[in-house]
Amino acid sequence: MTEEVNAKAYPLADATLTSKILNLTQQAVNYKQLRKGANETTKTLNRGLSEFIVMAADAEPLEILLHLPLLCEDKNVPYVFVRSKQALGRACGVTRPVIACSITSSDGSQLKPQIQTIQQEIEKLLV
Hints:
Layout: H1 15-30, E1 34-36, H2 38-46, E2 50-56, H3 67-75, E3 79-82, H4 85-91, E4 100-104, H5 112-125
Parallel strand pairs: 2-3
Antiparallel strand pairs: 1-4, 2-4
């Protein structure tokens, strides 16, 4: 079930990193540190609230997301693609597919160490 992933969906997380990201996304829901959807994600970036951004490589058309990596680079926020918007939606705690989400910062958050680990792993992909 490995359909071609759009070459523009870079960097793409491998299976291990994807499961870590989706795991953290699920926890972020409980800590109210998650914004779902391209528009909400854009807002958190502009407001400087994002820890990192997760986008779905199978968004159709992918161009609806491609303003986000540019914005991330401006704001120095790590970003990563996962293969499936369906899996991303499930991790966000909704039944609908989610094409983008933002893990937001929160003072004294218990997710901080995990967020930092994933930020470092995303940065390794970009080298």
